[in-house]
Design brief:
- The structure is a homotetramer of 366-residue chains.
- The first copy, chain A, is an alpha+beta fold.
- In chain A, 26% of the residues lie in helices and 30% in strands.
- Chain A contains 10 helices and 21 strands.
- The longest helix of chain A is centred in the N-terminal third of the chain and has 14 residues, at 102-115.
- The N and C termini of chain A lie far apart (78 Å).
- Chains A and B meet through helix 2, strand 1, helix 3, strand 9 and helix 8 of A and helix 2, strand 1, helix 3 and strand 9 of B.
- Strand 1 of chain A pairs antiparallel with strand 9 (203-204) of chain B.
Chain lengths: 366, 366, 366, 366
């Protein structure tokens, strides 16, 4: 008898019926999932593409979230590395928060280690134009950048071994026309500035692409996030938050820094890529594949599958100016007439830029 | 001539072509929209339903966002009033942030005024079980609650005129079974506790519904949010974040407090409502309408439209146990056989609770 | 003993565990919901707005779904009335399907009655330009329109009491420029054509708005759907499928026809409205409300809530050219400086058109 | 002068402004995208996994769409092969459509060739229980199956070289308990039945998994779609429409048939897999990868990344009964305590079944 009773209640309990009816019901399905959504990148032989955001703020300057939250956001959003870059000089919450910006890194580091996110120590040197706002990352001591003379601050960052870049050069608050100043020539000449944001938040600056070409600067796109990332970018849909794609042989802080110094990076923003032509071509060729099987329709016409294996969209324009959109992870079909006498298809990739009006040209041979 | 040139460039400029090609392109569509999504409530004659969350944390205790962000989240999520209730005693960031919790309210208030969100001053008195965690809202001076004896702290809150409630009574960290303790009887007897969370984060406690009935406590559901709201609740889909729906004659802080003291509130969580039977009936009858036009099918059968005008889902079970789901803002069709001899339809509303296993029964007459 | 066993299995059965483990598991949540998503329209005193699509095809001409499916699509998509308008002359499936197009109406009618969708009998008279494709709805006998001379066919439709309109006047297959022909003047003069599609599928024709003004034609937008509606329009997101909003005193077939004949209709497409200025103003004023409570910020500035109660988006442009988007069912906040000396706000509603470049101007007084 | 005017209008035209203002505006973004969403499958050396649906209806029996639409749906939904299987005997539209079901295949084949979808000729032999509904695919002449005696019909299908399976064995309309009948033994003994649907539409039959084990039948899941696929399954979200995953060396009709005959298939439905244990293990091991880098936290604890490369979800239960969900294309982090003394992790995969209550057990070694 007792066994049967036991068996009865054990069964009910096993099916959670006891708990359900009396004490506690956990609605696991009402919470957002806590996993990381991987951003599919092309597989390029011998290359790792690191997905990075190098311009991020927290409550310690004029942001609104705690440093550890920036690491969690990066994890959910599929990033590999971030730099938190609070303003050295602009600290609206300073009545509540301490002076040292080195604390920011110390607070976020253990969480970054847990998630395997590479956390870079950085800061934003904040001045009117020129030179505007300058980010320095891979710093040793942020508090040492507090001097009045911005040249001294930038030199100090350089002496700490920083990679240095110009933020939102065309920010309308600072200049209505996206203009390059003499001081930027000096910074480049001194080796005190190696990159520039061609995209920031939701704005981009086509002229800045020309600067990258002429002055050999690294193309960058960053979020410059101050509030909650998902209230600015919908991190579950396209376009993704802005990011800088850095090409390294092997993942690691030194490799990341070397690649940025060498210009081995592509800005990924608003469904567009901007970077060196050679890198754009590597990305395109490893992302887009023409289907093996051609389906013969009639009299030498065939339909051909073109697939995009990545989360980078590609917008192709054919020689008649017709558009072909390769959305992330999708396949489209095109009809090729007189297949036997046609050996290739030529396209301009209108969302891939290496210069102001310079798009990547591609050819698909078969 | 000059006029024509002028006209030409004026035109180009008007269409944004100058800007586009040279300086700056603003991708307005990449940002999430910044508007408030209204949560549709039923229109009940002479009643305003306030959508509230009375359990929220910030960086000042163990949360991860700045106080003003909580107001913005409330705005986007369609709430009318919130209480920020940081822990008086548990302050993991205290090396970085000041002692006074009154600052939290001072920081958030101007932003709340801008958005028209009613901000209530509150705090969480944090103890092991019993009595567990106790929220006090409508406080004057949070810092005055810092005494060691929790009874003294609760009395102080009461003396400040606070509305006081028991948080997550069945939180498994504190007790495996959702148990009521003698001390809670004392709190109720003293008039030092008027409500209880029947739902917190993603957990609810059916037994607590019985306490509300027996001890005349106010039914509440709150988010107890610590991180970014949208990383816990997907604020653009159902179910919405947990909230307490408070019934007032006219919106305002005093009216809100009086209604809570009187128990004129319904917990809204995980697609369910829990509250006094009379309020559940008011909500149902003002939310669900039977379509005017009946469509005759044949031999006395008709099809009838039933519409849900609100963002509250209703799950109906008919007398044969068949389910009928009325999703937010939708209409369903049902077939009524032998319409002339049938004068009404009876349903149990299985997602509306006034007690542990007590669902609202409704009848639709026509 | 036997009782206990019985009790045990009765219990298991009650909780569906027997069924679950042995026979059958129904995954109710894997299916799309079958309910109707209501499209929120403004409440205008004494007016009912009928949501209609008057240009739809089935397998009986060159479409791909069965007539009853068109009724179900209309139900899910929140429409009130549809006309199925298969081509009289173009019947690619005629080897498989019968000659009479009157069958189409007969097949769909019982399902329309069940759902309470008003089904209008119609057809498309299909000719090259001029006059292009002409829809006739409220027909009695479609098969009687089969004559070679299109004028005779249109006259026959007129004699059957049809409301007649010109489809996709700027369809590039028929004419590269959206041109009005003499024959259309004759049709209008004879009273054989009362409306025109200013929008079809995903194309619109701003010049046609001027024709509506000059020639007193009814503004229309229709889907011209051939395949599955949800493979062309994502019926769960904005913009909704194209539709014609018809203003009637009371719902019904005769009232609908009269309203169309009188021009009491507005085309709703791609997040835009096109129709008579007076109707656009009625819609705007009943859709957009300025919040009662103004929130004083400081020195005479206030923040004001503006809400859109409907599923029609409104894009406002203020006097400085700044945009304000009122998305469906949302509220935005604007700051009004020097409130005491400002008595109203003026906007141009850039997505509401009564003519080619003629947008509705509105003023919000307070 | 004339040049300037020309230049002016050429420019305007180049930017599409002429067209925009006068004739035609194409709203390309209002239409759903027409591309195929690839379903990510694991890469198993020497194996191709074909995504198939072998139970589909059209207007020619009791379905509601034209045969070609079934091919387009398969294309969008990421399938590789389908069989259209209209009822031989049940033809509610027969007043409108011809007798021959061979037409169905003839109509759909050219569209299948264009899209590269493998189209299999099939039919449903429709009887009460026993034997219930029987699908025969890889047929030559469907019309030859019209005899009264179902045994004769099944034998004819067999003689045409068909692969034959039992549909929805537990369909409640036919039997309340999912029961196996003597006639099914005869069919198996004769080699006239090689598979069974363990899942159909939104129902599955755990007992049928045992039949697959005992009687060596092929596990299958099919949609049995009659209406529009996207009104039954939301083809843009999980779970995907039901499908049968067939393991072949090389894609092709004969290879597909052989694999089905041999039982090299797995049913994929409602976020679950059901199939032979060996195939489930191949899928799991090729889908789930443990991250290379382990992040040391402290005293021998590490955090480990586990990624799911596919669109198949995996629900793991560890030895303490805790769940770990690996959603499609996502990565989760787990903490491994005392890493140095732990060499592996053991899980039960609770959504992968090879029998009624038999889940795949897996071990992750490192």
């Amino acid at each position: 008898m007792r066994n049967l009773f036991f068996m009865l209640f054990a069964l009910l309990d096993a099916f959670g019926l006891v708990a359900q009816n009396l004490n506690r019901v956990t609605e696991s399905d009402v919470l957002n999932q806590r996993e990381r959504h991987e951003i599919r990148m092309p597989h390029i032989e011998g290359i790792e593409i690191m997905r990075c955001d190098f311009h991020i703020h927290t409550v310690f300057s004029d942001g609104y979230v705690w440093p550890t939250t920036r690491v969690e956001e990066a994890w959910y959003d599929g990033l590999d590395a971030i730099a938190i870059t609070d303003h050295v000089e602009f600290r609206p919450h300073k009545n509540y928060l301490p002076d040292s910006l080195n604390d920011v890194f110390a607070i976020a580091k253990p969480v970054a280690d847990y998630y395997g996110i590479l956390l870079i120590k950085g800061a934003e040197i904040t001045r009117s134009m020129p030179p505007g706002h300058i980010n320095a990352i891979f710093l040793k001591d942020i508090d040492a950048l507090g001097m009045d003379d911005y040249m001294e601050a930038i030199e100090e960052a350089h002496n700490q071994g920083a990679y240095i870049f110009w933020n939102h050069p065309g920010w309308k608050v600072q200049q209505s026309v996206t203009k390059w100043w003499d001081v930027h020539d000096i910074l480049v000449k001194n080796g005190w500035m190696q990159g520039v944001e061609v995209y920031n938040t939701n704005e981009w600056y086509p002229v800045a692409l020309e600067w990258c070409l002429e002055k050999n600067l690294t193309y960058m796109a960053n979020s410059d996030i101050h509030g909650t990332i998902s209230y600015v970018f919908d991190t579950k849909k396209d376009p993704l938050r802005p990011m800088t794609l850095v090409f390294v042989k092997e993942r690691g802080e030194q490799a990341l820094k070397d690649a940025l110094m060498k210009g081995n990076a592509v800005a990924f923003f608003a469904g567009k890529l901007a970077g060196p032509e050679v890198l754009l071509r590597q990305i395109f060729e490893a992302s887009v594949v023409v289907g093996k099987r051609f389906n013969v329709i009639e009299n030498g016409d065939v339909s051909i599958k073109i697939s995009n294996l990545t989360d980078i969209p590609f917008v192709l324009e054919d020689e008649e100016g017709k558009n072909l959109i390769l959305a992330p992870g999708t396949t489209v079909i095109i009809k090729v007439e007189d297949y036997h006498n046609k050996k290739s298809l030529k396209f301009k990739v209108t969302n891939l830029y290496y210069g102001m009006n310079k798009n990547l040209d591609v050819e698909m041979t078969f």
